[in-house]
Amino acid sequence: MDLSVIGQHLEQLGDNSTTGFGFQCFPISGDVEVLKVTVEDREELPLFISVSDDQILCISYLWDESQVRPARRQAMLEAMLDMNIPMPLSAFARLDDWYVVFGALSLHASLDDIEHELAVLSDNVLEVIEDMAEFLL
User: First CA to last CA across the chain, in angstroms?
Assistant: First the structure.
């Protein structure tokens, strides 16, 4: 699956979106090509898509370690573990000092599947930020 195909599909959805969301896509060049995707009315919480030899990876950055209340860090990690299974199509991880929510898809996923994953991931990000606010500065 090619990132330009994904980006073009998402931007052309308009009223044909099965999720009801509008998407804007911005390619980011680098060692690994990444597609930054903003969901309509959620621009402050972009999603990032990359494609490897094995999967399509969709990530949203939540907060960095400096934003966590030190005395509440352990409780936050336990709450994240508890949320991992019931959170649809997503899981928690940490990249460097950043906590993230991610979802992975097969390279054979359809463009509709990718749209659905992005919508669910975006919804999950909003829920996580609300649920985890007590652990953050």
Answer: 39
What total number of domains does the chain contain?
Answer: 1
Flag whether 32 is in a domain: yes
In a domain, 107, yes or no: yes
Residue 48 sits in a domain whose CATH number is 3.30.1460.10
The DSSP annotation for 68-130 comes to B-GGGHHHHHHHHHHHHTTSTT-EEEEETTEEEEEEEE-TT--HHHHHHHHHHHHHHHHHHHH
Angstrom distance (rounded) from CA 50 to CA 116: 16
Q: Is the pLDDT of residue 95 over 90?
A: yes
Average pLDDT over residues 58-66: 98
Domain presence at residue 39: yes
pLDDT at 15: 87
Q: Which residue has the tokens 């990132």?
A: 3
Query: In the structure encoding, which two tokens stand for residue 95, read together?
Result: 């990249």
